[in-house]
Amino acid sequence: MLVVLIIAPGRADAQKATATLDTAAIRIGEQVRLQLGFTAPSNVSVQWPVLPDTLSPAIEVVKRGNIDTTSIKGSDLLQYRQYVTITSFDTGFHSIPAINFAYRKAGDSTRYSSYTDSLMMQVGTVAVDTTLAIKDIKAPMKQAITFRELLPYIFGLALLIAIIALVIYYFWRRSQNKPLLPKIVKPALPPWQTAINELDELSGRKHWQEGRVKLYYSELSEILRRYLEYQHLIPAVEMVTDDILESCRGNAAVAKSSEQLGRILRLADLVKFAKEIPLPPQNEESLKVAYKFVEQTKPAVQQEEKVEKQDVTPVETTADETSKPETVNETPTTNE
Q1: How far lies 12's CA from each of 41, 247, 310, in Å?
Q2: Are 103 and 50 in contact (CB under 8 A)?
Q3: CA 254 – CA 110 distance, rounded (Å)
Q4: Of 72, 63, 75, which is closest to residue 38 (Cα–Cα)?
Q5: Of 78, 70, 79, 12, residue with least CA distance to 42
Q6: CA distance 164 to 172
Q7: What's the CA gap between 99 and 102, in Å, rounded?
Q8: 249-266: b (≥16 Cβ within 10 Å) or e
Q9: pLDDT tens, 48-65?
Q10: How far apart are CA 181 and CA 165, in angstroms?
Q11: Dihedral sign, CA of 113, 114, 117, 119?
Q12: CA spacing 20 to 30 A to 177: which of 35, 109, 190, 320?
């Protein structure tokens, strides 16, 4: 019975809260560690105290560390520990009040408390030798500037230079009456190549096959007139047929082929103004003669130039045909 009485108090005191300072005397503004500890059996649940930002009007909490748990050898006790960094900016003696640790025992719903001892901390001032002269305040320390610090300024300067250059370029282009961005112009085809392409497009539209004979001859006439104006500098677009043929006879490049051109232009005039409707063979022959006229009157192509061949059915000619113009039946078969 006596043994039981001795052991019971020992188990009752197994829970213990402690608080210690690394040093009890500091200078104003210095930091010191406050060690909080709690020892209890492993089956005891502990509610760790949550410390406010100030432990007293003169003591401030700077940093709260993690809670570490270790087991005590040779027993079922666990030791909990936390370091709290504190400081004070008031000189004198300051009290750290007792801190409450709440816990519950296994199988017991009662909430128990264990308090640490209150501590006293002395905060002293910095000793000043009043016999010495007052020294000037030291200038801030100089440190080298890193590239990372310069990077925003470099980007800003590059952006500013780009904006200034763009503004200068804009006003320079405006002073020359040019667009801000130069237009990319494709190399122009020679007039004879343009005429061949337009004849190909005209053949593909199938105007006369679908009854648009007048439109067919109007476009055919315009193609040949533009070709004469741009290739041989004969202002054929604004001239009547007789004037065009007169100018062609005086131009060595087209004089030999002027009769072929005359037959096409006169037939086109009859279709446009006299409402003549040529036969289908005449329509096909007019397009072939137009191809032939352009091919015979185009400038000589240099050997080094490579010109794509057009898909055109050539019109065979004989020696007599070159000296004697072809005859196109201009007699209408049907009049409207």
Answers
A1: 11, 133, 114
A2: no
A3: 123
A4: 72
A5: 78
A6: 12
A7: 10
A8: eeeebbeebbebbbbbbe
A9: 999 999 999 999 999 999
A10: 14
A11: negative
A12: 190
3-state secondary structure 41-53: ECCCEEECCCCCC
Whether 314 shows a pLDDT value over 50: the answer reads no
Greatest Cα pair distance in the chain? 154
Hey, where are the domains in the chain?
Answer: 8-124, 191-300+320-335
Angle, nearest 10°, between helix axes 213-232 and 258-273?
Answer: 140
Chain centroid to Cα 331, Å, comes to 69
Residues with Cβ within 8 Å of residue 268, at least 6 apart in sequence: 217, 218, 220, 221, 286
Alpha carbon distance 122, 234 (integer Å): 114
Q: Give the tokens for residue 260.
A: 């072929």
What is the per-residue pLDDT for 217?
92
Taking residues 15-22, report their average pLDDT: 94
Cα–Cα distances in Å, from 192 out to 17, 50, 61, 261? Answer: 108, 96, 95, 15
pLDDT tier for residue 38 given thresholds of 50, 70 and 90: very high
285 closest CA partner among 225, 242, 326: 326
Distance CA 178, CA 176 (A): 5
Q: Are strands 119-124 and 25-27 parallel, antiparallel or unpaired?
A: parallel
Instruction: Please count the other Cβ atoms lying within 10 Å of the Cβ belonging to residue 119.
Output: 18
Enter the CATH code of domain 8-124.
2.60.40
- Backbone phi and psi for residue 144, each to the nearest 5 degrees, phi listed first: -70, 140
What confidence tens digit (pLDDT) does each residue in 131-181 have?
A: 888 878 888 888 888 899 899 999 999 999 999 999 998 888 888 777 777
Q: 287: closest CA among 322, 263, 307? A: 263
